[in-house]
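Researcher: Go.
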Amino acid sequence: MENQNYEVQDGGIEINIGELIQKLMNWLWVIILATAVSGIIVMLISMFYITPKYQSSTAVYVMNNSRDSGSSSIEYSDMQIASFIVKDYEQLIKSREVLETTITDLNLDMETEDLSRNVTVTASNDSRILTITVTSTDPNEAQVIADKIREISAEQIVEIMGIEAVNTVDPADFPTEPSSPNIKKNTVLGALLGFVLTCAIIIIISLFNDHINTAEDVEKYLNLSVLGTIPLNYEAMAEKKKKSAANRKKKR
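Model: Structure:
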């Protein structure tokens, strides 16, 4: 028997988009309910089961040589050289020496690899300003670690690369709002996932449903003429007819 929602044609399958859309509209209340429930579940998980994380950032400016401080202008060649060695600064800031010293000085209960995963270093384009960002479940700890890494890495950069100085642009800020989880974003994504999954399930069930439900289905898919139909609730229909007949007799 051919499926009601698609027909097998030579060379492929032709899907009846109109009937699939009608199926989705018939189950619209289920789709809306599933979307709302999925969004609420993800929101509650984000609020109560995911530990909030905070980010604190500090920025430094790396002075390449004496020309930075003694000259009123910085040559373009210096800026080009600086852009090439920014990656070296980033590696030094996240070096094992810097991280181990930070852990020791602050008496942190974590391994070097754990701290490294929570430290990111970024550089602005065509600039020697580096931003050090630390992520932690404790906002105060994030701020303290960021400042400590800035101090220790500045000494390492000056010593190892022969840089004149590493000046502080911005000290580490105290995060007042968690950087993650993003509850609004997670809720929207959860609701969207529930919507897509519910629609997909309804479509799949409809595609594999080969039941004949109406007289129109018999004529359309079996090419047979319907001589008559039997109501599903025959007893109720018969009772209704009896009551109608009785009412007509009373009127007479």
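Model: The domain at 54-170 is CATH 3.30.70.1130 (Alpha-Beta Plaits).
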